[in-house]
Specification:
The complex is a heterodimer of chains A (about 575) and B (about 80). With about 575 residues, chain A is of the alpha/beta class. Chain A has helices at about 5-10, 30-45, 60-65, 70-75, 85-90, 100-120, 150-165, 175-180, 185, 190-195, 205-220, 240-245, 255-270, 285-295, 315-325, 340-350, 365-370, 380-400, 405-410, 425-435, 450-455, 505-520, 545, and strands spanning about 20-25, 45-55, 75-80, 125-130, 170-175, 225-230, 275-280, 305-310, 330-335, 415-420, 460-470, 475-485, 490-500, 525-530, 550, 555-560, 570-574. An eight-stranded mixed β-sheet of chain A has the order 15-16-14-13-12-11-10-17, sandwiched between helices. Classes of the chains: A alpha/beta (about 575), B mainly alpha (about 80).
């Protein structure tokens, strides 16, 4: 981590090519250094922070005056830093009879700041929580005295968490946890405070800035989704190939405790939606054995989205993992005890995060806690579903490796599809696909829900939707077709769009069979299609060519009088 | 560091000043004041104090920090603590 004076030097660098984000900083103590640290570190994160800093101790005036500089500035983020020192100062001046309501009054004040800012500026707000000050008026007994400062401060921190779980655009930067990890003497330097009214020491500023930047960049979509694990001496002690399953250290054997606790940490990440892959230099059957048979293994095979164990180099294996999961390298973390592997991966795949794990496995967890690798800006059931989808996709890809013949693979998937016309239940999903599909979309005509409802009752259109389910899971509604009667003979394919999740499954053939059937049943002899190029749909440039259509005058025609069903391995499901 | 001379202290402070104030050409003398150096404002003063404290492994009292009228006074404080 860079120190403050290095961050300050960043300020002179060229920010002109970076994304600009407007940030307002409001504090009740001197915040100039914090502002410098934020802007300087922003450079390393790839942001040009346009920071407006309120004059000293002007939080309320700036927030509640609609004509204030803050409101004119229109920030994307407002950082509100109320310090524990000023909180204590306020408590000191409070009438002892009011001590009991001190924390809840402060909470109300902060809540008002947030709701006002959100309503008037539609901005995101970051509060720093309160690093603890024990004024030692009661000693440990203050834990039993609700009116004590420590009691009120802790209550306030707790209540802040409660309201921030309620407000989507309120984020808490956990200053208190920084103090817990580095100690109060390193957060607060009394002589500096007395001379400058700064409550954050120069040494702690980079840590506070990092914690703040992690929040902001997670909100802007930069967060990590995947962790790639080495096995030997990373998730268990020893070498499975040499030591054998009885002798690897996990559970009670040797320093196994360290690895068990490490695995529980990984398990918690999995439970919150992080994808885990294994990349190990081992014979696969041997590497898998502990996952299946060792009683102390916390991680199980079902936790691992992609399991790669072979003697190839790790860079290629990680590229393979990336291609299966289809997520960016910059969303991946690679954990390996071996410095050689780490350096090689770092050098060849610079976007991957490769933490410099300590030599002693006992230190892994503390080190990883400090690294804050998995900051996030959202957590919902949707995240878990998305992970399940990735895992299913990974299983499919892994499974495909076992087949040299693609037809055999497709047959083995047991694919079924529900084919139906548009109806009131699938309208929202159809509208969503119509709005969002860019790649596999032949004409990219966008339909709203209202348009789609009209199509349902139209006499001159046929509509079809397709779902796709296979042995690994259900992809849901993945294909939308809108057919328009052009004349008594010609049926025009107005819309053909598909989710890219289901490419290379024979879905195109299955869909064309269905379209041809409708054409035949209704007396049309010709299907007419069109490709309208956009910046994103090049992948379907030759779609109709591949399906046997003939080109004429920028349209594609197919005679369906003697249509032969095209080969696929999808069956109709009622 | 026990028998460090004043001029050695001054030399080391100079290096710190160059780093913190980001000015390679900076030469400070015992009679240099904050007014003589553009980049030396009340905020960078705090940075300088903390850097000097770390370098010499000493701590200044808040009174000392305010009392220096020139670099020489700072050297006095450091000298008295080594």
């Amino acid at each position: 981590m860079k120190d403050f004076s290095q961050l300050k030097k960043n300020i002179k660098k060229d920010f002109s090519k970076l994304n600009t984000i407007k940030i307002a900083v409001l504090g009740d103590t001197a915040t100039q250094f914090l502002t410098i640290a934020l802007r300087g570190l922003g450079f390393d994160y790839g942001y040009n922070f346009d920071i407006w800093e309120a004059d000293y101790n002007q939080i309320e005036r700036q927030v509640f005056d609609l004509n204030s500089d803050l409101h004119v500035f229109k920030p994307d983020f407002v950082i509100v830093f109320k310090s524990s020192h000023k909180l204590l100062g306020k408590y000191n001046k409070t009438n002892p009879e009011q001590y009991l309501s001190f924390g809840s009054n402060e909470l109300k004040a902060l809540e008002n700041i947030y709701t006002f800012l959100f309503e008037k500026l539609n901005t995101k707000v970051i509060f720093y929580n309160f690093n603890e000050i024990d004024d030692a008026v009661f000693g440990s007994f203050s834990n039993k005295i609700e009116s004590s400062f420590l009691f009120q401060l802790r209550k306030l921190n707790y209540e802040l968490m409660t309201i921030s779980s309620k407000y989507q655009n309120l984020f808490l930067c956990d200053l208190s946890s920084i103090q817990n990890s580095v100690g109060k003497a390193n957060v607060f330097q009394p002589s500096v405070y007395v001379n400058s009214d700064m409550v954050l020491s120069i040494d702690v500023l980079p840590k506070v800035a990092t914690k703040t930047l992690d929040i902001i960049s997670a909100i802007y979509g930069k967060f990590r989704k995947c962790i790639i694990l080495d096995l030997d001496n990373t998730i268990w002690g020893g070498t499975i190939g040499d030591d054998g399953i009885e002798n690897i250290q996990i559970g009670n054997l040797g320093i196994g405790k360290a690895f068990t606790e490490f695995q529980y940490w990984i398990k918690k990440l999995i439970n919150r939606g992080v994808i885990v892959a294994v990349c190990s230099k081992n014979t696969k059957s041997i590497a898998i054995e502990p996952f299946e048979k060792h009683p102390d293994m916390v991680l199980q095979l079902k936790d691992i989205a992609v399991f790669v164990a072979n003697w190839e180099n790790k860079v290629d294996n990680i590229k393979y993992i990336q291609s299966v999961l289809n997520i960016g390298f910059d969303t991946m973390v690679f954990l390996d005890d071996n410095p050689f592997e780490r350096n090689m991966v770092r050098e060849m795949l610079p976007d991957i995060c490769v933490p410099e794990l300590p030599d002693d496995p006992a230190e892994y967890l503390e080190f990883l806690y400090q690294s804050n690798l998995f900051e996030t800006a959202s957590f919902s059931a949707v995240d878990l579903q998305r992970t399940a989808l990735y895992q299913v996709e990974a299983q499919r890809a892994t499974f495909q490796d076992c087949f040299t013949n693609e037809d055999d693979f497709l047959k083995s998937l047991n694919m079924v599809s529900i084919v139906s016309s548009f109806n009131k239940f699938n309208v929202p999903r159809i509208a969503q696909l119509s709005q969002r599909s860019n790649q596999f979309n032949l004409r990219t005509v966008r339909y709203t829900e209202t348009d789609i409802l009209q199509l349902i009752s139209s006499k001159s259109h046929f509509t079809i939707t397709f779902t796709l389910e296979d042995k690994f899971g259900d992809n849901g509604l993945v294909c939308v077709i809108i057919l328009k009667k052009e004349n008594a003979d010609v049926l025009f394919i107005d819309t053909w769009l598909m989710s890219c999740r289901v490419l290379k499954r024979g879905m195109e053939n299955f869909v064309l069979n269905s379209i041809a059937q409708i054409a035949n049943e209704n007396g049309f002899s010709t299907l007419k299609g069109q490709y309208l190029p956009t910046l994103k749909n090049e992948m379907v440039k030759d779609h109709y060519l591949h399906l046997g259509f003939r080109e004429s005058n920028e349209f594609w025609n197919l005679n369906v009088k003697n249509y032969q069903n095209r080969l696929n391995y999808i069956t109709y499901k009622q | 560091m026990i028998f460090m001379q004043r001029n050695e202290i001054l030399e080391q402070i100079n290096t710190i000043f160059i780093d913190i104030l980001d000015n390679e050409d900076l030469v400070i003398l015992e009679n240099t004041t904050a007014n003589d150096v553009d980049e030396w404002d009340s905020l960078t003063h705090i940075q300088l104090v903390v850097a000097v404290e770390r370098h010499f492994k000493i701590r200044f009292s808040s009174k000392e920090i305010q009392s220096w009228t020139n670099v020489g006074k700072m050297v006095d404080s450091i000298f008295s603590k080594l």
